[in-house]
Amino acid sequence: MEINIGISQGNRKAIADALSKVLADSYMLYLKTHNYHWNVTGELFHSLHEQFEEQYTELAEAVDEIAERIRALGYRAPGTFKEFKELTSVDEQQDEPDAMEMVRRLAEGNEQVMRTAREALQPANDAEDEATIDLLTERLKVHSKTAWMLRSHLE
Question: Taking every annotated instance into account, which residue ranges of this chain make up the domain Ferritin/DPS (predicted)?
Fold first, then answer.
């Protein structure tokens, strides 16, 4: 069935492609946050363990919303590690950082998701796609607050 939602096929494709990058970044940040939740140690263990759990839980819901928006636009949402690895801008490290390095890396990851989301705003704005604009605005709000809270640990 042809999609007729008031956004051209070309604009829907541009938005879906941009959202796919936001999805990949969000998923990779989810994975990193969950890893750090499991592996954090030290005197701040309890507070960071809890904070990281709140963050990865929020990210798990976000990736679902982003993927569903891509589907609503008529495109397949990427969903494999290979696709995410090709699309993401979030660095993946395989070492075992200390707690404050985890915090620093997660702050950087949230900032990267914000940069990717800002890039995705352009095609959404061009197409006057308010639903995507709203989704991206919410992501920017959440990641901005999360990055600030994480950076506050480092002061």
Answer: 17-155
Q: For residue 112, what is the domain's CATH number?
A: 1.20.1260.10
- Tokens 């590690």 belong to 81
> Would residue 52 count as lying in a domain?
yes
Q: Is residue 1 part of a domain?
A: no
| Domain housing 35 | 9-87+98-153
CA triple 75-81-83, angle to 5 deg: 40
Whether residue 92 is predicted with pLDDT greater than 90 in this model: the reply is no
The pair of structure tokens assigned to 67 is 């993927």
